[in-house]
Write a structure and sequence with these properties.
295 residues, single chain, transmembrane helix, transmembrane transporter activity, amino-acid transport, Branched-chain amino acid ABC transporter permease, mainly alpha, 70% helix, BCAA_transport_permease
Length: 295
């Protein structure tokens, strides 16, 4: 069939793999955005910058401390999450009772500060990060060659996304989180410290961005602009899936990544805009997004 279309199977499956890898990062990043917006009603424009910070933390740990990929996979998200806690406690908390636009402007300013600071310190050239020895090489599937590390990124991202969805939608802690967004006073009456829960929620959301940064470091060179190049697409993914929808962020992120891959095969010129075209169509048909709820 593919030969009839003049498309080698290797090219199609190769682009599908690239699309699935991109979709994994879209899903992780949009999941963090959905958690923060769904629970805190904050449009976190600093998310892409914190993704970049996660990649740089992994690189700095390796370069200056000698800590490799596997410990960094735990330490970098914790460090980025701790940074998020500080930002929420010192800045964002003051803006919850005012218009959401102020939170958007604040986080956008923070993104510019982070990117400018890292660009000043490290320049704009990318810093290489080696693939861990355990994940080097690949597998010949007959119709394509599957690099082991890229397969790991896809599998691990889907696992993290699934675990996050389950924790928020199917556990008592997730029920408390959802209730705290609807009626924080009532939840506080049950002895739950809502401000601490809000801080931890923001910290967890940005920790997901830091985790995505560590996963991306061996694939894309670590540089201060890596988040700026990705965050616009991720915001489009969140809008398409439905602002605040956990399932929407995961499904839409993976699906649009695959769609981008297919578009690069059949119509390469449209691959950079296909996500935004779909966003425009979805907003016209269902403004709340595919998985969002109309208010």
């Amino acid at each position: 069939m593919f030969q009839l279309l003049g498309i080698p199977p290797q090219a199609l499956f190769g682009q599908l793999l690239l699309g699935l890898i991109n979709g994994s990062f879209y899903a992780l990043l949009s999941l963090g955005l959905a958690v923060i917006f769904g629970m805190l009603n904050v449009v976190n424009m600093a998310h892409g910058a914190l993704y970049m910070v996660g990649a740089f933390v992994a690189w700095l740990l390796l370069t200056y401390v000698g800590i490799g990929y596997w410990p960094a996979l735990v330490l970098a998200p914790l460090i980025v999450g701790a940074l998020g806690l500080v930002l929420e406690r010192t800045m964002l908390r003051r803006l919850y009772k005012v218009d959401h636009l102020y939170g958007l402007l604040l986080t956008f300013g923070l993104a510019l500060i982070f990117e400018g600071a890292f660009r000043h310190q490290f320049g704009v050239s990318g810093q290489p990060y080696p693939i861990p020895d355990l994940l080097k090489g690949g597998t010949n599937l007959g119709f394509m060659f599957l690099p082991t590390y890229r397969g790991w990124v896809v599998g691990f991202s889907i696992l993290v996304c699934g675990a996050t969805w389950f924790a928020i939608e199917r556990t008592k802690l997730g029920a408390y989180l959802r209730a705290a967004t609807e009626n924080p006073t009532l939840v506080q009456a049950f002895g739950i410290n809502v401000p601490v829960m809000v801080s931890l929620t923001y910290g967890f959301g940005v920790a997901l961005a830091g985790l995505a940064g560590v996963l991306a470091a061996p694939i894309y060179q670590v540089n201060p602009l890596m988040g700026a190049n990705l965050i616009i697409v991720v915001f489009a993914v969140v809008v398409i899936g439905g602002m605040g929808s956990i399932l929407g962020a995961i499904v839409t992120g993976l699906g649009l990544g695959l769609l981008e891959g297919v578009t690069k095969v059949f119509y390469p010129e449209a691959s950079n805009i296909v996500v935004f075209v779909i966003m425009a169509v979805v907003l016209m048909i269902k403004p709340a997004g595919l998985f969002g709820r109309e208010k």
